[in-house]
Amino acid sequence: MRVAQSTFPDELGRTVNELTVRQARLQTQAATGQRIRNAEDDPSAFLNVLELQGDFQRLGQYSDNVAKLQVRSQAIYSASSQLKKMTDRASELATMANSIRTKDDYGAYASEVNQLLENALALANGKDSNEALFGGTSGAATAFEAVRDADGNITSVAYKGNSKVRQVDISAGISFALDVPGANESTSGPRGLLKDDRAGVDVFGHLIALRDAMKTGDKSAFPDISTSLMKDESGFIESFATLGAAQSRLEVAAKQNSSESISTNQLISQESDADLAQTLVELNQLQAAYSAALQSAGKILRISLLDYI
């Protein structure tokens, strides 16, 4: 059966177009190193890449969360360490109070304790990312608010935050709580750093009591105050232990997320990256086929009606 001469141009056009598209795709792969750019390039692999890229983005978010928590943990540790130094010095002064003999000496020590109280308040109101460091999840601008007398001396300190802690995702299916509330006056929940009725912790209350006892020279009050300050110090020590364990856990999570990110990125590359050597071979073959098609077409289209007479 004879093929109509009129079908040659159509067949030639389709063949040349197909070869041109395939050449362009291989040239793009060779230039970019990417085998898959659109779903039609490889539908199954394209879906796998989308899923892997989603996993990679989630791992990136986990890594960001861990990094922020690590920064916050350092801020909490730094402030807590300084606060413990305040209570350590207050304990020393309470112990030394029994040996004080003159009213002027009591006045000098009272002034020092008052300064410790002011420093403790400033540290307790430290911030992280413009949020109260020890305010729980309240979002309060400052965790503690002082009440002062006519002379500007602190007479009491009120907690403006709450005792809740936020949970942050650090890996798939794992949430982590790092925050330390400044106070917890309930019978449950996380321990309050500067006030916790369950443990007898009340840093501000005990500093105020020590200062006032120094002012009046009431030696009978110092033993009880010393015992109370020791409870405050024990609270800080327990907090340091908890914080140290949290920092270790964050380090493990950071390494795990980093390792999984590398593995996931490698899987994405395996699915989407082009094999350069194979791509170049296929491109050369297509270019040869393209040239052959054009040459054949040139010969066929030169046939005239005289060839059929």
Walk me through this protein's architecture.
The protein is mainly alpha-helical. The chain has a domain at 81-248: f41 fragment of flagellin, N-terminal domain, CATH 1.20.1330. 62% of the residues lie in helices and 9% in strands. The chain has a 3-stranded mixed β-sheet with strand order 7-8-9. Strands 1-2 form a two-stranded antiparallel ribbon. Helix 1 (7-32) packs antiparallel against helix 6 and helix 2 (43-96) runs antiparallel to helix 5 (222-272). The longest helix has 54 residues, at 43-96. It is rod-shaped and about 120 Å long. It starts with 6 loop residues before the first helix and ends in an 8-residue tail after the last helix.
Q: How are the SSEs placed, and which strands pair?
A:
Layout: H1 7-32, H2 43-96, H3 103-124, E1 127-128, E2 131-132, E3 144-148, E4 154-159, E5 168-171, E6 174-176, E7 183-184, E8 195-196, E9 201-202, H4 203-216, H5 222-272, H6 276-301
Parallel strand pairs: 7-8
Antiparallel strand pairs: 1-2, 3-4, 5-6, 8-9
Summarize this structure briefly.
The chain is mainly alpha-helical and 309 residues long. The protein contains 6 helices and 9 strands; from the N terminus they run αααβββββββββααα. The strands form 4 sheets. The chain has a 3-stranded mixed beta sheet with strand order 7-8-9.
CATH-defined topology of the domain at 81-248: f41 fragment of flagellin, N-terminal domain
Taking all Cα atoms into account, the compactness measure Rg is: 38 Å
Tell me the series of helices and strands, N- to C-terminal.
HHHEEEEEEEEEHHH
What class would the helix/strand composition place it in? mainly alpha
